[in-house]
Fold this sequence. Notes:
The chain is mainly alpha-helical. It has one domain (3-47). Helix content is 76%, strand content 0%. It has helices at 3-22, 25-31, 38-47. The longest helix has 20 residues, at 3-22. The protein starts with a helix and ends with a helix.
Amino acid sequence: MNIRKTFRKWAAYQQTVRELTALDNRQLNDLGISRTDISRVARDHAGSI
């Protein structure tokens, strides 16, 4: 894996974590995720890039 792809994945992970963390618990619940799921969801998203 080249450095650009690694950086894109890292940036996508960080952005996803920031955006999900900014939501309140009700909004997260509406999406079907909990606070403890944020890292996993962000990893899954970054892995799909």
